Amino acid sequence: MYRSIDLFAGIGGIRRGFDNAFGDNISTVFVSEWDENAQRTYRANYQDEFDISGDITKIGVEDIPKFDICLAGFPCQAFSLAGKRMGFDDDYKGMCRGTLFQDVVRICEHHQPSVIFCENVKGLTIHDKGRTFKVIKNAFEQIGYRVYDQVLNSKDFGVPQNRERIYIVAFRKDIDSNSFRFPIGNQSNTCIRDIMEEKPVSVKYYLSDTYVETLRRHKERHAAKGHGFGYEIRDLDGQAGALVCGGMGRERNLIIDKRLTDYTPITHIKGEVNREGIRKMTPREWARLQGFPDDFKLVLADTHLYKQFGNSVTVNVIEAIAKEIKEVLDHGRQCKNVG
Fold this sequence. Notes:
alpha/beta, Rossmann fold, DNA Methylase, Chain A, domain 2, 10 strands, 31% helix
């Protein structure tokens, strides 16, 4: 039985991937997530016998149980290409998001788990001309780990989302990890149509004709200036753009769904519901774009759910990497048993 901890847990996407890969051979013994809404979604989907811990910067290493696997999706906003990319200088509500990875280092230096797994935005690799990423890898090496990293795209792993992320896997140096390889995704034949709701969705997801016109004018203004900003209607036989941290940019992943029959608004809108069938994807569709199964409970309001899935990870990619990690760890244990 491998014992794992889930740091910066969000709604548990990394955990879900590892649970899928390890099956009954993994047990989560500690979870930390400071966002209360994310905690609510996490609790609805994981029945742990312990409470979710809050701010990881205030938790002592001795208060964390022994563990073999550290899962850490440390906050991406400080390094995101879509943000200000302030990195280690980033300050958010009194917390420096860019240095929260140092808490991963602090905890793992003390407990020396077999493996550390991290996920972050692709922009981390080029932030500050690559110096930030080098600092992060060096930090893990200095506490006794061999570091592997790879940029992978979710669209290659069975979900129709063009989402590149950097994945970091660090094995303790006394573990023979020479055989470790990142998975090669070969499932790029899925499309948006595959993840659409089976039944017609609520009229609340359809844009008003007034808003559609506003989006068109906004895009035209930017196009005239040579910019590529603006709304985007995705081809149902194509792929979605990356779901954005914070859940913003829903207008970059609009689709046309003409199954609506009752155009009576149920929310306050300007104008009328558009007759072109232009709508936002639903939170369930966003969940599917991230590889979450349909039995994953969505218990909060849509605004929170969009944010949570935008901030989350693609479960399919995590699971594929976790299977490769399990191969290395299982082989190491077998060698010890033979010895």
